[in-house]
Design brief:
Helices cover 50% and strands 8% of the residues. It has 702 residues and is of the alpha/beta class.
Amino acid sequence: MTAVTAVTDHTDQADRPGDDDGRDDARVREEDDRVPGRDSAHPRDGDDGHARVRADGDAAASPEEGASGDGGAAGARPGSGAATDPPHTTDAAGVTDTADSPGGEGAADAGRGTDGGNGGPEAAQAPEAPEESEGGAWDDGLIARRVAVGAEGHVRPVPETAADDRPPVVTPLAYDGPLRSRLDALRELVGLSRARLDNRTLAEAGRILEEAAARRRLSGQHTVVAIAGATGSGKSQLFNALAGVAISETGVRRPTTSAPIACSWSDGAATLIDRLGIPGRLRRRPLQSPEAEAQLRGLVLVDLPDHDSAAVQHRAQVDRVLALVDAVIWVVDPEKYADAVLHERYLRPMAGHAEVTFVVLNQVDRLPGEAAHQVLDDLRRLLDEDGIALGEYGEPGATVLAVSALSGDGIGELREALGHFVAERGAAARRISADVDAAAARLWPVYANQRQAGLTEEARDEFADRLAEAVGASAAGEAAEREWRRHANRACGTPWLRLWRWCQDRCDPPTGRMSVRSQADEEATARQRVEQAVRTVADEAAAGLPGAWAQAVREAAVRGAQGLSEALDELAVRAGTPAGRPPRPGWWPAAVLAQASMTILQVVGGLWLLGQIVGVLSPNLGVPVLLMVIGIVGGPAVEWACRMAVRGPARRYGLEAERRLREAASGCGRARVLDPVAAELLRYREVREQYVRVMGVGAGTG
């Protein structure tokens, strides 16, 4: 007969107290205490707990001998030489081989002993202990026992050897230089953008950074692959076929798989499975096979619930685990391989993860003739329409295979593809890189600009001109020029003309010569001009920027415009009004002296004529008249010459006053509006540079 052996094992985790296996062990120990001599032939099981099934072709014979020597004493007392239980042998991996029950063919042969029934106990021939697999036994924390057979045929126990309880050394995952640079750039990008973008926009990028950091701290020698599929696609059956043992429940009841189940082909994956949130009772080992261990060493396979399950919590578990695994095997069947839910919700959004994607067409045994190839070709066409690159002709991309988990067709090819995939130890890094690509694609509308961003010199000059116009820089310059000329006329003009102008100013009414606009109207107009200048420069700076950054630029300009009109008014008072009298040119004293001389000549000539008329002086009209004519003609001539001479200095003085006020207004506008806008543009350029690094491009524009 063939003995079936079941050994349980929780990956890197022993059973918890209170489990059913623990209660079974307690009952076995009680039976051992009641049956003398049983410990040597029936060692207790380890405190492990994974269900691994193995068939042994050679059954162990049960040593039995009756009191009369005919081997038929089934009711012998304990200790009389007849064994009450069939012997068990346990190999180093904890696999127990159970002999056939007494009364079978092996038991009958053993009971007929060679001594003709002299009543002496004969030991049955025990089967050889199975050899350990390559790389040693499973490091599951089991206490292995062996039963060896002596030269005389007697069974003698081998001393117990405890397995090494130290946890296996786990090598953390290491990212290459380009991926580390992209992750650093993404972290800097998120940090610079938090004050400008909402948390919902940056949530996915933040999650990717957290998952990348968490995955980097875990084992780099293991690859976590999830098996996902729709209801009835046979993914659990495929999971069992790869494991070589019935681990995941299959059946017609839907949904069959209600929680993720993990199967690890090597030790050290406990922390990876903990990250997936899979409890110890749902962790399994595959069928112990040296060939399978060597081929799939480092693989952690996870069977997921149906992604289209009627239970909402099942779909939530699928979405959660798919975001954490290194690769995915999508299992489809000939009936639902074109399901819109699969393609629109999963395959199309994850098109950038083609290098860590397997698409397996299961149940091809149901397709007759060439129908399997036709369905497979149509599946490839749909994947291409989804934007998924296919790994054909040596190109990187998704692996598409056709298998039958029921008949075993294509399972070997899938095992080989998984073996090469896991042996590369690069799936985790490729998954993180694909996640970064997906995050960058989603953030493209947030950071991509349509044209060169920034303020041109023309825009800056136009803003300064608008502020100068609002503050009245031109009018202030003209007023300063008139003031300089007026001062020159007062100094160089004739006294008679100045007296006439003074009298005219006092006698003429002011109505009709003053502006009818009030000061309030002028202030309102100036404020409107300032606001218009700010809006214009903000629109110019935000042109071509993404929406969030354009809004940030406009908000910075609006904040700076608050109180700008009042500040410009104060500047106009300080810079527009010159302190004291205008400066005098070097020729001004000579002109004043000449004008005084002309006045003196007029006075002297007039007094001389008056003296002659009164009779004080002798009559002589020629000299006094000549003096008066020279004074009367020379005074206006000097004044006219001074007017011509002051045009240049007065113009320069007015321009200087206008320049001072224009520079003051421009400086105020630059400090309050242009500098904050430039700071926002600089921040955007920095963010843009980091985004270009996240995209993996060496240099960028914008």
